[in-house]
Amino acid sequence: MRKPILLSLLVVALLGATLSACLLYRGRVVFLVDATYSRTVYHANERTLKRRLLLNGYLPSSLEVVPSEFDEQLLMGFAEKGRIKPEYLVLSPLLSELLPQHYPEGMEQVHCIRIGEGESSFDGYLAHLIPAKHFDWQQLEKRLGTSGSALVLADGGQALPAFDPSRTVIQKEGESEQAFSLRLENLCRERSLLTLFAPQLGPWAMKLLAESGLSWVVDAAYAPLVDAPFLQGVVSDDLCEGLLAVLEGQGNSVQLAKRYFTAREIGGNFL
């Protein structure tokens, strides 16, 4: 008798959740993204975004768009749906630049949200999400790292004003990519390093990525270069907090902040 009762309770709970979702429904949020943004920043945010938007009454979805196919006909499809229920379009930086060239009549009821740097004179945007430029990688390595980890700075412009002497920081010193790669490989072996925190990846990293078995924490822009089993996490713009601020009317120009996403959080395989 217990199984039928339990099943009935589950059905009632599901119906209640469905009814609540219908009553709280506040519109659809569609992310229009190009392939590069889809595989980097959006991929890091996707799980958290969808969960938080659903909890706040929005129905999230995404569409990867080839820039050459971004046109008036595609946008009019969203305009038609926008006449029935609130429709929000969040556009990746590349597609945000293309929107003014293809903005059709009748799109006024669709709320377009731009991701990108600088100001836009185009008045078809409801709001603007500004990508973050800075992130404290040394603090992240100090918080998450161990004696078997190191921060790798391969760009002279990333030089830190003062290194924490308790942490391992390896910096490229005017040497060639190949020489730096060899030096880094030797240091990893000598110091038994297991994890590298790398704000940027370049030719120096290719051999290590392919052969070393190291785990990596990288900027989202470089995440596709790291095989999933070796990706410990990524640093990316936090789209969720910025977008919710716009949707809740807290501003029409919101500065995004970068944060750390674990591999599990973004759907990777790192254990």
Structural features, described:
Helix 5 links the parallel strand 3 (87-91) and strand 4. This protein starts with a helix and ends in a 5-residue tail after the last helix. The radius of gyration is 22 Å and the shape is globular. The strands form two sheets. It has a six-stranded parallel β-sheet, with helices on both faces. Strands 7-6-8-9-10-12 form a six-stranded mixed β-sheet, with helices on both faces. It has ten helices and twelve strands. The protein is α/β, with parallel strands linked by helices and 271 residues long.
Describe, in short, the structure shown.
By secondary structure, this protein is α/β, with parallel strands linked by helices. The chain contains ten helices and twelve strands.
